[in-house]
Amino acid sequence: SQQGEEDPQALSIQEGENATMNCSYKTSINNLQWYRQNSGRGLVHLILIRSNEREKHSGRLRVTLDTSKKSSSLLITASRAADTASYFCATVIMDTGRRALTFGSGTRLQVQP
Amino acid sequence: DAGVTQSPTHLIKTRGQHVTLRCSPISGHKSVSWYQQVLGQGPQFIFQYYEKEERGRGNFPDRFSARQFPNYSSELNVNALLLGDSALYLCASSLRDTNTEAFFGQGTRLTVV
Asked: A105, B41: Cβ pair inside 8 Å?
């Protein structure tokens, strides 16, 4: 079963615009990570935010985490055509001995040049 | 430095057959995880190995098995293939456990006919 669910499922914007995608999860987490996947290839790690952090930046990426609402958002500023990809949030769950990433279903981002 | 390498990249098998997928982690990484990604969905956790021991298993039937070798490379085996096993199989390595970022290979695209 999916721990996280991304919203929206698909997003189409123009180059230069900002893209915001959201992730909700169900159980307490240790950390939350965002990954990018191009055309069904391998996933690339973008950013990790720990449960005691509220906001994190990396270049054009900004991630927020609200543990009270069990949600996170990924903001890509000044988007480029090369940002076209699927974006997934993934959580590491606290209450199991299993240390695995649990992924959502992803947001497919299309950046029009 | 070489990233995570997986072989083969593509594979076509017939129902009922057996398949072995291989993964070499990044040098120095001791944790290897396997994920199955069906088209249009997020990756689903199958197995995690750390220091050659199984640390976690996802909700997959016993037809799925894996192991990790002394050099930390890993194999995923699937017996009695079903059409529903058609998917992208991803291997990820990390230094320790999944509190650190995971580095994914490009995957093996398995098609069962």
From this structure: yes
Query: Looking at the domain A4-112, which fold is it?
Result: Immunoglobulin-like (2.60.40)
| Cα four-point dihedral sign B107, A15, A103, B28 | positive
Beta bridge partners of residue A93, listed in sequence order = A29
B97: which chain A residues are within 8 Å (Cβ-Cβ)? 99
Domains, chain B, with CATH or none: 5-112 (2.60.40.10)
CA distance A51 to chain B (A): 11
Written as one letter, the residue type at B10 is: H
Best probe of the B interface among A101, A103, A107, A108, by most B CBs < 10 A, is A101
Q: How many CB atoms lie within 10 A of CB A76?
A: 23
Nearest Cβ partner of A105 from B42, B58, B100?
Answer: B42
C-alpha B108/C-alpha B113 separation (Å) is 16
Q: Is A104 an interface residue toward B (CB < 8 Å)? A: yes
* pLDDT, tens digit (0-9, with 9 covering 90-100), for B62-106: 999 999 999 999 999 999 999 999 999 999 999 876 566 899 999
